[in-house]
Amino acid sequence: MTFVLRLHADRMDAGATLDLAAGAVRAVYVEAGHVNAAAFGTVASLAANSAWFGASMASLHAGAEGARLLRFEFVAAGQGRGGLLTSSELSFDPKGEWLLRCDRVEFPPGGIAYRHTHQGSGLRCLVAGSIRIETGGGGKDYGLGQAWFENGVDPVLARASARETTAFIRVMVLPRAVLGKSSIRYVDEADKDKPRVQRYQIYIDQPIALPGSAP
Fold first, then answer.
1. For the segment 150-170, what is each residue's pLDDT rounded down to a tens digit?
2. pLDDT per residue over 104-144, tens digit each?
3. Which of 35, 73, 194, 214 has its CA 20 to 30 A from that of 59?
4. Domains of the chain and CATH, by start
5. Listing from the earlier edge strand, what are the strands of the sheet with 156-160?
6. Within 10 Å of residue 141's Cβ, how many Cβ atoms?
7. Which residues pair with 102 in a beta bridge?
């Protein structure tokens, strides 16, 4: 079955409300400001550098200073596409078991993630520094606010800025067996024992039902 993982970059004014429709599995990352996320009579208070998981109708309410959000949504193919920063189509076995992971990956100046794959596909969005992503015989440089897709199968080499700390927010759909475990697999034997300079902060590691299916 075909699904879409999409990313919205929301800019909310002070006191603004953003209503979220049903039909999506979501990870909302607060890049700056403060948001209250309300769903099913409960309210979660979210400060900068925190994230919220939702799989139903909800409302986001910005605080007095407003908010900047990265809103990742995993939906069935064919749903609305307005206001997107980027999106990618994904295919999944409806009989499989899956989870949604949202995390932050941070590199010191000059950090490298050696050639690797992941056990699932996902989107990334840069929130600090700059990075070069090399895959498939080519490479592309990304700056603040830019996003990219990795299918998890094609090996990727990531080179962070030599001058400043680099960080991106990542959302992946992974097999549920990866719950609480790293999804990365290094390609070259010589790289497997090298020091890992990147740091990970996991916000969400949530088992999910595929959008449009029964829980």
1. 999 999 999 999 999 999 999
2. 999 999 999 999 999 999 999 999 999 999 998 899 999 99
3. 214
4. 2-91 (2.60.120.10), 98-208 (2.60.120.10)
5. 138-142, 131-135, 156-160, 112-118, 184-186
6. 11
7. 171, 204
The span from the CA of 181 to the CA of 118, in Å, is 12
φ, ψ (nearest 5 deg) of residue 94: -65, -15
Q: Using alpha carbons, select from 48, 99, 43 the residue that is nearest to residue 70.
A: 48
188: Cα within 13 Å, side-chain hemisphere: 9
In tens, the pLDDT along 55-114 reads 999 999 999 999 999 999 999 987 655 568 889 999 998 889 999 999 999 999 999 999
With beta carbons less than 8 A apart as the criterion, state whether 18 and 10 touch: yes
Residue 91's Cβ-count burial label (10 Å; 0-12, 13-18, 19+) is exposed
Distance from C-alpha of 62 to C-alpha of 69, rounded to nearest angstrom? 10
Displacement of CA 23 from its chain's centroid (Å): 18
| 3-state SS assignment for residue 178 | helix
To the question of pTM greater than 0.70 for the whole model, the response is yes
Distance CA 199, CA 181 (A): 14
